[in-house]
Specification:
alpha/beta; 6-stranded antiparallel β-sheet; 9-stranded mixed β-sheet
Length: about 450
Amino acid sequence: MASWISFLEEKEVALPFSFESLGYLTDEDAWRLLVTKQPSLEEHFFNLVSQKFGFSICQLDQLVPDPDLAKTLFSEEAWMLHDMVPLYNGTTLGLAVSNPFSSFLDTIKQSYGVVTIFLVPCADIHAYYTGSLAEMQPITRLHQILESAITYQASDIHLQLAGDHVICFLRVLGQLRPFTRLSMEAYRCLLPALKLHAHLDISMTTLPQDGRLTHVYQDQSYEFRLATLPTVYGEDVVMRLFHTGKQLLSLDYLGLGHVAYQKWTQILNHASGLILVTGPTGSGKTTTLYASLRYLLTQKQRVIVTLEDPVECVIEGVRHSAINPVIGYGFSEGLRAVLRQDPDCIMIGEIRDAETARTALAAAYTGHLVLASLHTEDCETTLYRLKGFGLDEFLIGYCLKGILSQKLASSTSDRYLLNEILEIDSVCARQAGWNMQSLLNTDRHYTWHQDAQLKGYG
């Protein structure tokens, strides 16, 4: 008796045929006969197979079929005959199948090794090959890519031209992973729809453009920051994903160890001065800044104003301001305006130039608490970067209260926070004459701390 039929008999599933009559059929033929005779069994069978083998159950419009990949493997007739649709699934071959016991799967596995199987209703696959899904509208394809990025918890989407086709990459857990491929014809239809939703000029193809679009998925709102780049093949696109409805983390859940947490909160408790969060792109600097602002709000009533590009999340009790360099409202211009708002604390999304650095340092010197991020690898190079901006060493030594340098390391399923904290000892710094070189060369003038813990954001 076939193993699938034995399994159904053990589960006492009601079938339109007797188990004895089905026992002479292969699993593949038994599945096809039962689903053809009683289509309502398909959903029940999918649930049983999913529980037994761990396959995902999807609608085909939740996936991204790859017609180009299909043609390189077998003929379209072969895929249609076996009710399968190829998908490009990262480094492995993905297949949408309606019959998980198809003998054709064994042939594919022998040729291509690991295959990721998605259980998809037979009607969806038939509709795909009859044209109702194959001729996918650009907006539908766009939604598929955006929602796949949300599902895989990707931080970025890359649409990269590669000659006669386009590769879509997702950055997941810090790693860039190929997700699907698009033909140039499909991309030429997709790109105008993408630009239109991001409020960009669809006729402009020779200059970079920046925009934003919002997408609602499963009752949650997500914002994508989009940037185009002209290349020799055409326009590449990168989208960064922000979950605008996500719950902000507190310092307790960022993955800081006990010693690091004590050091960082001690630095944040200063009444004035400059505090920096540094690290490479995508290391969670903004998340740490937000968590630090939430901590400050719990300590006492303050006027807190932020300058960001863009505003990623809104904290109740904080005045957020989004800069717009296109109209001349950059970080330096915004910071000068904020100083006229009588703030206690100012958060700068990123110090990008010498003018912003000088204004931030001046604000810290005149009695404001200034938090900011900076793209540097560690605490020591942060000090040299500040000096490289042409800032006065005395002001750096006098105003700088501490630096948290962080980066993310990835395992197979989690992200880990690696951090280094520099806390300036004002008494020792004064004795050293506020000289930055002395601070760098004298260990007693600051405290270093390194820690590795599970990271709660990504």
